[in-house]
Amino acid sequence: MNIKNTEIGVAGEFLVLSDLWQRGLPASKATESLHYDILITPRGGSPIAVQVKSTSGLRVFPIKSHGKIYTYEKYRFSGTRKKMGSHVPLNYDAEIKLLAFVAMDILKVLYRPNLSDKRFFIFDKEEFENTEHSLTDSLNELDKLTNGKKE
């Protein structure tokens, strides 16, 4: 089956929405005019803008070492988004506080605070297998950073 990148992206956004609601975090899909994909609206807390990055599955990366070529499989995500026709790093927009990386082949979501200016994010499959605390840890880290700035 040949699925377009835009369809994978939309499916990833809905998977993240479902995941957030299952975790007790009310969230909604953002309109096309906004710079993020999802807005979490925690009861009694500040809204959190989320950028979703999705991939259909693992990619094979070759590495040449000592005259031999080895391969390894990783999930790879773009660290940029389109803005006015060009690609800018995800952390360019201060509105986006949380990144949600979606591996569609295993239907898992990995959350990270939007703190990096990387052009690409690469994760092992094992990182997606242990995602139970990635959202809580990311939200706690964002809370610490926000509270630290207020002091």
Q: Features of this protein?
A:
151 residues; 26% helix; 38% strand; alpha+beta; 5-stranded mixed sheet; Trna Endonuclease, Chain: A, domain 1
Give a description of the structure.
- The chain has helices spanning 5-22, 125-129, 134-150, and strands at 27-29, 38-40, 48-55, 59-65, 68-78, 80-83, 86-89, 96-103, 108-113, 120-123.
- It has 151 residues and is α+β, with helices and mostly antiparallel strands.
- The chain has a single domain (5-150), classed as Trna Endonuclease, Chain: A, domain 1, CATH 3.40.1350.10.
- The longest helix is centred in the N-terminal third of the chain and has 18 residues, at 5-22.
- The mean pLDDT is 85.
How many structural domains in the coordinates? 1
Along the chain, the helix and strand elements come as HEEEEEEEEEEHH
Tell me the CATH topology. Trna Endonuclease, Chain: A, domain 1
Overall, the morphology is globular
**Poorly predicted residue ranges:** none
Percent of residues in helical segments? 25-40%
Q: If strands are numbered along the chain, what order do they take across the biggest sheet?
A: 1-2-3-8-9
